[in-house]
From TrEMBL:
Residues of the G-protein coupled receptors family 1 profile domain: 1-232
SUPFAM superfamilies: Family A G protein-coupled receptor-like (SSF81321)
Keyword entries, A-Z: Cell membrane, G-protein coupled receptor, Membrane, Olfaction, Receptor, Sensory transduction, Transducer, Transmembrane, Transmembrane helix
Protein name: OLF49 protein
GO cellular component: plasma membrane
Taxonomic lineage from the root: Eukaryota, Metazoa, Chordata, Craniata, Vertebrata
């Protein structure tokens, strides 16, 4: 679990760093310029790290499923080699899923306005600044989003359905009361993250929805990363004990 949390923490730091510092600097200075190269780098890193994060969330949910439903086989199933392979697969998968649309995206020229209707270089407002037919690029982005979001969501949903089923069967009331808040808090953050991304990237493009999309994007880039340390660390018994000992 801690091996996955380390990688998840690195992803979260990288994911938020690609957007939040620049957005805060724009708010503080009152100026909102960004170079073309900086915008393209931000776009690639944002989606690559975000895609990797969803894949890692699916891996972590599978890890919790094995720990809860197959505790006697956990050490044999989730050994160090398997854990490393799953994390490497998530990182490579995130890069591969974003690379193909990025190549097409970077090759298409910009024309007209250079003003992005967003607080970051998100894909939809950036596509509106592209010249020519963008249908192929939109289709590639949609396929990548479907595979990433719905594929990882299916694994997470199946894992936690089995976990909740196992928790319900716990004979001890205290055991159920201890397990359910942890599952509920985790599922709240996961639902918020998946819900915001599905709204932004798997619904039809409408210009009048861009303002609403910016508001929803805050859930994914600010609110969820802010809650994750509380969900995965501060609610952890071992972490609380280590914190008390250090104080």
């Amino acid at each position: 679990m801690y091996f996955f949390l380390r990688n998840f923490s690195i992803l979260e730091i990288g994911f938020t760093t690609t957007v939040i510092p620049k957005a805060l600097a724009n708010l503080a200075l009152g100026k909102k310029p960004i170079s073309l190269s900086g915008c393209l780098i931000q776009t690639f890193l944002y989606f690559m790290l975000g895609t990797t994060e969803f894949l890692l969330l699916a891996v972590m949910s599978f890890d919790r499923y094995v720990a809860t439903c197959k505790p006697l086989h956990y050490v044999a199933i989730m050994n160090s080699q398997v854990c490393s392979l799953l994390v490497i697969t998530a990182w490579i998968g995130g890069a591969v899923l974003v690379l193909s649309p990025s190549v097409v995206y970077f090759q298409m020229p910009f024309c007209g306005s250079n003003i992005i209707n967003h607080f970051s270089c998100d894909s939809r407002p950036m596509i509106e600044l592209k010249c020519g037919n963008t249908k192929v690029l939109e289709c590639m982005n949609f396929i990548s989003a479907v595979f990433t979001l719905l594929g990882s969501l299916a694994i997470t949903a199946v894992s936690y359905i089995n976990i909740i089923t196992a928790v319900v069967k716990i004979p001890s009331v205290a055991g159920r009361q201890k397990a359910f808040p942890t599952c509920a808090s985790y599922l709240t953050v996961v639902s918020m993250t998946y819900g915001s991304c599905i709204f932004m990237y798997l619904t039809p493009t409408q210009t009048n929805r861009l303002d609403l999309s910016k508001v929803v994007c805050i859930l994914n880039t600010v609110v969820s990363p802010l809650l994750n340390p509380f969900i995965y660390s501060l609610r952890n018994t071992q972490f609380q004990e280590a914190l008390r000992q250090s104080i």
